[in-house]
Specification:
It holds the Pfam family Pkinase. The chain is α+β, with helices and mostly antiparallel strands and 175 residues long. Helix content is 45%, strand content 15%. The protein folds into 2 domains: 33 residues, no CATH class; 126 residues, Orthogonal Bundle (Transferase(Phosphotransferase), domain 1), CATH 1.10.510.10. The radius of gyration is 23 Å and the shape is globular.
C-alpha cells in the first residue's frame, strides 16, 4: 500500500468501526513516522541541542569541562572546535583494568567527577548524560566532562528547561 493511500485506508477503517489488524497498525505507524520525519520540528530539535551545547560551552570557564575554541556552521553542519584530550575517555581506561579500577584510582576519579558535576550545577545546568564515554581524560589524567547536547538549564524555582525557554540571563563569564 502506498504511503499516500495509507492514511485514507486507516481513516475508513476507523470511521466504519472495522477492526485494525497488525498490518493496519503498522501502516498507521509508518505514516506517522514519515510525517514526523518531514516535519520542521524533526530538524529543529537536533539543532536546538547543538546550540544549547555551544551556548553552555561558551559560558563555561571551568577546568572540569571541555574547552570550546570556535564554533561555526557550514552547509547543514555545526562545527565545534575543542581541545584534544590525549588520555582518551573513561570507558577506555576502565577497559584497561577489566572494569575493576584499583581503589585509589576509583577514589581519585569519583572525587574529580563529583567536582566536575558540581561545577556544571554552579553554572545553573544539569548534564543529563554523564557516562564513561562522556568523561574525557587530559594528558595528566584529569577528567573533563563532554557532550552537553542534552543538558538542561536550572530555573530559579527548580524547574528545568533549555536556557532559551527560560529566557535566562547569562551570567558574565568568569575570568
Amino acid at each position: 500500500m502506498s504511503a499516500d493511500l495509507r492514511p485514507r485506508a486507516s481513516e475508513s477503517l476507523s470511521l466504519t468501526g472495522g477492526l485494525i489488524g497488525v498490518e493496519g497498525l503498522l501502516d498507521v505507524l509508518v505514516c506517522v513516522f514519515e510525517e514526523l520525519s518531514r516535519s520542521a520540528v524533526a530538524g529543529e530539535k537536533p539543532a536546538a541541542c547543538f546550540r544549547e551545547e555551544r551556548d553552555f560551552l561558551v559560558l563555561s570557564n571551568s577546568p572540569w569541562i571541555t574547552k570550546l575554541h570556535f564554533a561555526f556552521q557550514g552547509e547543514g553542519h555545526l562545527y565545534l572546535i575543542m581541545d584534544f584530550y590525549a588520555g582518551g575517555d573513561f570507558l577506555t581506561l576502565m577497559s584497561r583494568f577489566g572494569d575493576r579500577l584499583p581503589e585509589d584510582l576509583a577514589q581519585f576519579y569519583l572525587a574529580e567527577l563529583a567536582l566536575a558535576i558540581s561545577s556544571v550545577h554552579e553554572l545553573g545546568y544539569i548534564h543529563r548524560d554523564v557516562k564513561p564515554d562522556n568523561v574525557l581524560l587530559d594528558a595528566s589524567g584529569h577528567i573533563k566532562l563532554a557532550d552537553f547536547g542534552s543538558c538542561l538549564c536550572l530555573g530559579t524555582e527548580g524547574q528545568v528547561s533549555t536556557a532559551r525557554a527560560l529566557h535566562k540571563q547569562w551570567p558574565s563569564k568568569p575570568n
